[in-house]
């Protein structure tokens, strides 16, 4: 999101929802933005976008607005939420809604393994599951066909492993935010994450990764096109990180990549890559 604050009309245009729907969510008490002290007009911020993703994702899974209101009050979900998901799963089996069904099954597995998950992290992963087709479509022309295949033709088991890794990354980022780039835990986090990225694309260095991501047909992608792609992805998959956490992460990742440039180019591989 490039803006920090949106009017209701701007937020409606950005999200693709109608102003009437946003007003309705406000009246129902499930998406209530702050009000301008002088005018009383609604003012939407990044946190409202994350809340909207929670609403739309849970609606996609078949929950009613009243059920959604109860769910989004909590800050995390634990094993008790599995029973709720199982009830929705039974409905989806009967209705043969395969995408939603797989989302619930993967969510149940994540909660069972983690015992408790930050709600915003879970919603981010659910939104990613829900919008895989849209992500694949907007990736065309930006990524090579090989890169798209590696990302979107993965099995459910592979995707579940990726989601577990992203949960770990988000949790550790929140725990370590504020530490310096030379902190051993910060360095280990980034090395693990970058290894994870390389494993997804089955390569051994970032020069090789770059050659896979960029094919001949996408060599001339402009900065404007790339920024538009990033913006569209942000609309589809909300980050569970705060603005401050994102800023720290960007700074630390840039520093880490710069200080380890030879290694990540694959020039100093030879068994140094952690597993």
Instruction: Output the radius of gyration.
Output: 20 Å
Q: Report the major sheet.
A: 2 strands, antiparallel
Q: What is the strand content?
A: under 5%
Low-confidence stretches: 267-275
Form type = globular
Order of helices and strands, N to C? HHEEHHEHHEHHHHHHHHH
This entry's quaternary arrangement is single chain
Report the strand count.
4
Kindly report the spatial arrangement of strands forming the biggest sheet.
Answer: 1-2
Task: Provide mean pLDDT, rounded.
Answer: 83
Proportion of helical residues: 55-70%
End-to-end gap: 34 Å
Q: Please tally the helical runs, counting DSSP H or I stretches of 4 or more residues.
A: 15
| Main structural class | mainly alpha
Task: Provide tags for this entry.
275 residues, mainly alpha, globular, disordered C terminus, single chain
Layout of strands and helices, then pairs:
Layout lengths: L7 H8 L3 H10 L5 E2 L6 E2 L2 H15 L4 H9 L2 E3 L1 H16 L2 H17 L1 E3 H12 L1 H8 L5 H8 L3 H21 L7 H18 L4 H8 L9 H14 L6 H17 L1 H4 L11
Helix pairs in contact: 3-4, 3-7, 5-6, 6-7, 6-10, 8-13, 10-11
3D architecture notes:
With 275 residues, the chain is mostly helical. Helices cover 67% and strands 4% of the residues. The protein has 15 helices and four strands. It has helices at residues 8-15, 19-28, 46-60, 65-73, 80-95, 98-114, 119-130, 132-139, 145-152, 156-176, 184-201, 206-213, 223-236, 243-259, 261-264; strands at 34-35, 42-43, 76-78, 116-118. A two-stranded antiparallel ribbon has the order 1-2. Strand 1 (34-35) and strand 2 form a beta hairpin. The protein is globular. The chain starts with 7 loop residues before the first helix and ends in an 11-residue tail after the last helix.
């Amino acid at each position: 999101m490039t803006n920090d604050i949106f009017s209701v009309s701007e937020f409606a245009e950005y999200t693709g929802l109608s102003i009437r729907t946003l007003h309705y969510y406000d009246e129902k008490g499930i998406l209530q933005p702050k009000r301008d002290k002088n005018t009383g007009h609604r003012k939407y911020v990044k946190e409202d976008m994350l809340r909207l993703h929670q609403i739309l994702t849970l609606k996609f899974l078949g929950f009613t607005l009243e059920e959604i209101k109860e769910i989004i009050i909590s800050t995390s979900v634990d094993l008790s939420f599995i029973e709720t998901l199982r009830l929705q799963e039974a409905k989806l089996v009967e209705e043969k809604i395969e995408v939603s069904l797989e989302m619930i099954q993967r969510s149940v597995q994540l909660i069972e393994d983690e015992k408790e998950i930050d709600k915003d992290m879970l919603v981010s992963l659910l939104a990613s599951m829900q919008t895989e087709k849209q992500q694949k479509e907007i990736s065309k022309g930006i990524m090579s066909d090989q890169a798209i295949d590696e990302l979107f033709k993965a099995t459910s088991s592979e995707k579940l492993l990726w989601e577990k890794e992203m949960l770990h990354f988000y949790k550790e980022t929140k725990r370590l935010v504020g530490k310096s780039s030379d902190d051993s835990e910060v360095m280990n986090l980034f090395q693990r994450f970058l290894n994870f990225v390389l494993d997804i694309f089955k390569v051994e260095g970032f020069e090789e990764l770059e050659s896979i991501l960029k094919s001949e047909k996408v060599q001339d992608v402009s900065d404007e096109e790339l920024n538009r792609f990033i913006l569209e992805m942000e609309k589809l998959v909300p980050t569970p990180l705060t603005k401050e956490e994102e800023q720290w992460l960007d700074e630390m990742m840039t520093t880490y990549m710069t200080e380890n440039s030879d290694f990540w180019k694959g020039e100093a591989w030879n068994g140094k890559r952690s597993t």
